[in-house]
Amino acid sequence: MILRFACLFLGVLGLFGFYELALIQWSSWILLPGCILLVAHALNPKWSNKILTMLHVEPIDQACVNGNMKRVKAYLKAKADPNFTNKNKLTLLDIATENKHTELADLIRKHGGKTGEELKAEGK
Fold first, then answer.
1. What is the average per-residue pLDDT within 4-26?
2. Residue 85 forms beta bridges with which residues?
3. What pLDDT is attached to residue 123?
4. DSSP reduced 3-state for 85
5. What is the 3-state secondary structure (H, E, C) of 8-25?
């Protein structure tokens, strides 16, 4: 709830900044898409995922669902947490295995990814 409020606050603040600077500086247009994503995420997190997917920017868990090996490799190369857990308490390895993406599951496992059960057994 606090995260959604923070997203709404930052999004509205950014939109106000865009309104104030739009006529003066063209660079303020860079601010607009980020503000729209923040506000969309605050209103409904599923909307921001849809917007990112339309822009061909998938969140890492969605990339695992879709079997997007290239995207997951890029996230892992950028030091994303291989044990990321989504709101359903599924790790990336759980998602890849559940969707029968064995190559992707192997890649995640190679980068230190574990299943939710393994993390639970470790007490994490």
1. 67
2. 91
3. 82
4. strand
5. HHHHHHHHHHHHHHCCCC
How many beta carbons lie within 10 A of that of residue 82, not counting itself? 20
**pLDDT at residue 86, as a whole number:** 83
Q: Rounded to whole angstroms, how far apart are CA atoms 6 and 49?
A: 17
91: exposed, middle or buried (Cβ count in 10 Å: 0-12, 13-18, 19+): buried
Angle at Cα 47 formed by Cα 2 and Cα 4, nearest 5°? Answer: 5
* Mean of per-residue pLDDT scores for the chain: 77
pLDDT tens digits for range 47-85: 655 665 555 566 788 888 889 898 888 888 878 888 988
Point out which residues pair with 91 in neighbouring strands: 85
Q: How big is the chain, counted in residues? A: 124
State in Å, rounded, how far the first CA of the chain is from the last one. Answer: 23
Tokens for 64? 């695992």
* Separation of alpha carbons 113 and 55, rounded Å: 27
- Complete DSSP assignment for 26-60: GGGGGHHHHHHHHHHHHH-HHHHHHHHHHTT---H
List Cβ<8 Å contacts ≥24 apart for 18-26: none
